[in-house]
Amino acid sequence: DRTVGEKRPRALDEEGGVSLKELSGYNSKRGEFEIEYDNDAEHLLADMEFRDTDSKAERNVKLQILKIYAKRLDERKRRRNFILDRNLLSCPDPFERGLTREEQEACRQYRVFMRFNSLEEHRDLLNSIVDHMRIAKRIQDLQEARAAGCRTSAAAGRYIDQKTKGENGDDSSQKPTRQNVAGEEERWCVAGFPGAELLSETEKEMCEEMRILPTHYMDIMETISMGIIKGSITDKDDAHLLPLHVDPNKIDRIYDALIAK
């Protein structure tokens, strides 16, 4: 049995705190806020009344005031529906469940654009933002894995898994390094690739260690040789300026091998 004047329990959110709906003063049964937008709009009509003695001009003024009041009510309703339709009283937003902290923060920064789009259009925008962030993160992880010595998707996957466990504080996983990741990969053999028969055993071993194809190796050798002959390449730094799109360390090894011949 409820006693007279007993306060109803306050609604709590998932974390045990006072819910955003409770803090905003929204009454779901009435579909209204305790303090609405333009809450003083009714003051415009507080002392107004229509009398039989009103002149036509006075009546027109009062009708005009009613039109202004109706517009203010329409704006109040539009803003209330905007909040309810987009679940702005839900904390956390159902859309953000399953997202990382960085993705959630990015989605919240785009809330200012809600008023320009429908709910579906805004969700499509957020989905594209999240997809972009995940693709960029995947590219960054793969670049780091490649810099660590990974040359296959399997090795890159192991590297990324070890890195993720390390970031999560899992002490049982060893921090990935170039040596232990590259050591897990299978030996890369250039035998059977076009141009391999033109290379010496030393050059084949170099290609296998650097993981480049024989034809690519010979193209780099030819480009550097032509630069040396023309006088445009006098040292390794000059060779780095060539548009070879190869790791500078590999260019250094090929340059040293060419000079040693």
Automatic annotation (TrEMBL):
GO terms for biological process, alphabetical: chromatin remodeling; regulation of transcription by RNA polymerase II
Molecular function terms from GO: chromatin binding; transcription coactivator activity
Domain Transcriptional adapter 2-alpha/beta-like, residue spans: 23-90
Chain spans, region Disordered: 159-183
Lineage: superkingdom: Eukaryota
GO CC terms in record: nucleus
Entry-linked PANTHER family: TRANSCRIPTIONAL ADAPTER 2-ALPHA, TRANSCRIPTIONAL ADAPTOR 2 ADA2 -RELATED
Protein name, as recorded: Transcriptional adapter 2-alpha/beta-like domain-containing protein
Taxonomic classification: Eukaryota, Viridiplantae, Streptophyta, Embryophyta, Tracheophyta
